[in-house]
Every structure is written in C-alpha cells, then in structure tokens.
Amino acid sequence: MSAATAARDLTAHLALVGNPNCGKTALFNRLTGSRQKVANYTGVTVERKEGRFIGPSGRRFRILDLPGAYSLQPKSPDEAVTRAVCLGELASEPLPDVLIAVVSATNLRLHLRFALEVRALGRPMVLVLNMMDEARRLGMQIDREALARELGVPVVEAIAVQHDGAQALVELLDQGVPPVPTVATPPDLHAETARLLGRTVTFSDTVSLRDERLDAVLLHPVWGPLVLAALLLLMFQAVFSWAGPLMEGIKSGMAWLTDLVNGVLPEGPLRGLLTDGVIAGAGGVLVFLPQILILFLFILALEESGYLPRAAFLLDRLMVGAGLSGRSFIPLLSSFACAVPGIMATRSIQHPRDRLVTILVAPLMTCSARLPVYALLIGAFIPDRAVGGVFNLQGLVLFTLYVAGIASAVLVSMVLKRWFSGQGDTEQPLLLELPAYRLPNPRDLAIGLLERARIFVRRVGTIILSLTVLLWGLGSFPAPPEGATGAAISYSFAGMIGHALEFVFAPIGFNWQICIALVPGMAAREVVVGALATVYALSDTSEAATQQLAGLIGAQWGLPTALSLLAWFVFAPQCISTLAVIRRETNSVRTVWLSAAYLTTLAYGAAFLTFHMASALTGA
Amino acid sequence: MTHAPILLSLRDLPLRVSASIAAVVPRSADDRIAQRLEELGFVPGERVRVVAHGPLGAEPIAVQLGFTRFALRRAEAERVMLNAQSVESPATRTGQP
What we know:
- The complex is a heterodimer of chains A (about 625) and B (about 100).
- Helix content of chain A is about 60%, strand content about 10%.
- Chain A has about 625 residues and is of the alpha/beta class.
- Chain A has a domain at about 5-205: Rossmann fold.
- By secondary structure, chain B is mainly beta.
- Chain B has two helices and six strands.
- Chain B has a six-stranded antiparallel β-sheet with strand order 1-6-2-3-4-5.
- The interface of A and B includes residues 430, 435 and 436 of A.
- β12 (about 430-435) of chain A pairs antiparallel with β5 of chain B, so a sheet runs across the interface.
C-alpha cells in the first residue's frame, strides 16, 4: 500500500446526497455537530458545507453536505454541483469514497427514485432511511433488510433529530467502505421505485391528517394570507422593537470603548483612526447584529417548519405580477432589515434571471440603516401633529417612504422583466415542493443561526471596517491650516470632494455640508448623521448632539432640501457593503455598476422632482 | 388512435377532486419543466388531487401526489394530462392520497 492510499484510508471522504426536505442537513448536523466549515464551491455561489467526525474505532471522516437535488439531470446551479461532485467532475473536490443517499422514509416514492439514480453511478453507497419516527407515526412499516437485499446496498435507519439517531450509520461507516452496488438499475426508475415499495413497504392508507388540517387553514385563500400577514407583523415587531435594548447595549459598549481609547491615547491620528475608523466601523456593523439574528431566527424557524414554501405559494401570483416569483419573497423580506443578508438569501432562487432581478431590487427595500437618517430629517422638518384623528403626520411620512421603496421595486422589476423577455427568456417554473410540517429542532436552529451570523460578521465586518478606515482617512487628511475657522473636515479630501460635488447636487437642493457628509456616508447610510454632525462642528455624536443637529438643520435648510434628501435616501446606493455583496453573489462587476448606476439615477431623479415640486408648492 | 381516452388537464381539475395521470405532455423536445414534472413523480398511473388554490386568480395550485405536495402554476399543470374516467369527487374518495 502506498503512502498516499494509506493516508486516504485514514480519512474517508463522504458525501450526503438526497432530495430537498429529506432531513439531510439535520443528519449532517447530527454527525458533525459544530465541526463545520461553510464556504462556496470554487467559481460558483453554491454553498459548500463540509464537516468532520471520528468513528468509534478512531477512523476519520470528512463529509460534504451536497445541495439538495431532485435528480442528477440538473435544473439549477445547486443541482449541477451535486451532480459534478458525485461524478468527480469538479476539479476542486475529490471523488467521494462513499455516497450516502438520504431519503425521508415518509416520502419514499419521490426520494427512492433519486436514490436509484445515485445507485446507477456505481459508486460505493449507503442508503439512509431518515425520519423513521415520522414514518412510524404515519403507520408505515418498512422491511429494511428486504430493501437492502433488493437494492444491493446497505440500508440503515436514522432519526436525525434524535440524540443517537445516526448511530447505525456511524457504525456501518466505521467498518469500512461498503462495496459497489451489485444490482443493475433498470431504465424506468419510477416503475422500479413502485416495485421496490410494493415488496418492502406497507403504507397505512392515511395521508397525514395533521398536515391536511394545517394546509386547509394556512393555504386557505382568506385565512392563509391573514396568518401570513400576522406572522410578518410579529416578525417586524420583533426585529424592530425586541432588538432595541440589545442595540442600545452595543452602542453604549462602543461608546465606553471610545472613552477608554480617548483616555489612554493622546489626541492625534492614531486615536482618530481607532475611535472614528475602527470602533465606529466595527460598531456600525455590530449594532445591526441583534436585528439580523432575530430576523434569521424567524426565517430559519419558518424554513425548518416547512412554512416558507407555503408563503411563496400564497404570494406567487402577486410577485409574478411584479415581475418576480414567490421565491423572491424571503430575500426581499430580509432586505427590510439589511440588504446584505437579503442578497445572500437569493441563493434559494434557482432561476438565474429571477435571482438577478431580486438582487437588483433588494436595495430598494427600506433597510434599518436608513431609519436614523429618516428619523433625523422627519424629526427636524415634519411637524408632529395628528392627521384625521388617528394618524400622525411624522408616521405617515415614514410610511410613505417605505411604500415608495416597495412601489419602485415593483416598477423596476416590471421593467427588467420586459427587458429580459425581449432577450428570448424562457418560462420560469414555480414547481415548489410543500414539505411536511415539522417542529423546528432547537439544535439545528442554533447551528444555522451561528453559521449565518458568522458569515455576516466576516463578510460585512471586513468590508465595512476597511472602508470606514479609508473614509476616515479621506475625512481627516490633510489637517486644516493654522488659524482655520471652519470645521476640520471641510479642509480634508472629503471636504474637497464635497465642495467639488456641490455643483452636481445643487440642482437637487443639497448644500455643501450635505455633499461632504455624503462622502463618508458611502460606508453606510446611518454614518451620514454622524458626518453631518461633524460638518456642523458638533463635537460628539451622542443623543444630545442629534437633537442639537436637528435644531441646526431645521433652522438652516429649507423644507424642499430636507424632502429632497429623504427622496435621495429612498434610492441611493449609499452602502458599499451592499455593492460588495452584489459583487460576491453575482461574480459580476457589471451587475454592481448596473445597480449602482440605476439606483443613483433614480435617487437623483426623485430628489430633483421632490426638490422642485416642494419649492414650487412652498413658494421658496 | 381510435379508442383514445377522454383527457383532461391537471390545470382544469377542480378543488378537492382527484384523478389519475395519463401522460405528461412536453411543449417542446427539450421541455425542462415537463422533464422535472416526471422526475417529481408526475408519471402515468399516479393519482393527483388538488388541495388548494392560491388567493389571487386561483393561482398557483397545490397538488397532492403520493405523500408529497407541490405548488404549481396553471401553465405548468397544463402539461399533466389526466384520465377523465378516473376522476373522483371528494364524496366518493377513499382514504387513498
């Protein structure tokens, strides 16, 4: 035995392959615990999950959780990766030593067919009958030994959500690589599946009554949308109010850290870099983490429970009308908290065109980073008075800004749809499986949440941090000349850029102070508030300063300018991390330019119209 | 064929009514949607039942096939042809899916 094969014997490469909703990921979590690595397959934005575990005899395993697939004739990038890995066609992945075909025992008619496709590859293989607890509950009896005999491959039972649920699989794998299947696969896989089921499985004749009853309500044309609306309301409530105390905590933590640095370091570039660059930059990301975690928790729980595809079912017709598909719903919903996780979530949209359109319109959803800007401007310019007895004028303006974002997303996707259909685009199917309802497993929720949080912090953290440092540099150098009277920032590079840009923004009513604030505000929208405070030479950016700032700009700016700036923020791509994530998720610089260009054009146009209409109306 | 059975498309199957599949008819030689329908188990002989309609324009539809439910748009369901003789309304339906 050569050294290479000996080393390979030490670590066996496994790949989990199976239909969506077969409980594959729960099994993966059960086998590997938190020893997982999540990344992308080289060159494509398909999630690659790898984990490790050690068998009872000390054998080491590396295991890939391949994307769920219905067939090895791929219809999406995910399925293409699954096929390529199973065939050893992907240069970056070794051919798996063992394919572990996972089927849900409750859905054998669908899943066993795919397992037969996998068997036809002629690779060493194990079949895992997952969700055996559910199958027993439904009154099914499966003759495991007969199935193994008929299939010519080892068959083990598993309950991935139970503590020892994968033990039989681990013990089997620990004994060594199973043999190549000996039974030939007939061409008609459906007929073969039916034959196998006839010989080895006794079905009780009830469809899951529980699911039937749940769907009768949740897919009902009236109750269904009402339940969905209630769930969304709860989710928004959670994201925007439950996260509040945590966000305040992070903010005061950052303030404490800033004070600490200010106390230790003398005034100078290093202190500025640490407090205004690093701490402000990292804080800008971290402060949104509670919202994003709560959002992810809701989405994960809805996903695990099997409800999400139902939401897509209820909304599909509406979304098709807007040039999207039911699958675009979750990414767009997430974008209300932050476009970055929203754009990351578009991976679940299988069709490239639908995915691209969703990515392009996601930044139009009013993300929470816009709220501080909206709050400042609305507080300063819109009178706090009741309208029609029940509504508040400030609240109505905020609502209008949200609606403006959604309405423009609808318009943009309709335009894009027409544009794509001119390019010979083909029919996009919905064809969505509505899986059995399940109670979300806390362990899987926790693992999923941790994983997504890690990806978010790593991705956005590095981008925002490096950019805020860069923008801090632009705003701090060169230092103001001796005896300068204005704010330091107006003598810096950012100030020069702001002054130079003044003539561009003058037609939409922006003064030079706003122009300067927009430069550091490229890092993240809410930074504009702090930047404005800096331009107006306010020493700190605390709550009191924001109040003070509101008074200042309320006295200095006209209403048309304020409204114009609000309109600008509905559209403007004032967020480098969004653009960076678009770049990562589409692998295309062209798409980044396309979205930045169209958003800026819309922003400028909307601000221009707003400014001139408001000027005409107020007689300014 | 002289004795062609009367066909009905899944698109037009009423709510809560079941029928058995006669064929999946591709729209073109390379109809990926028809291909996927077959992979999902829409094959001759299997029974399907419409379990729900979407809230707007009764689109899409939710279909029970074996132990699995699928959401399909009507344009997709149109490819699935059913045996008209096999149609069973809910009153005559037994516990079979």
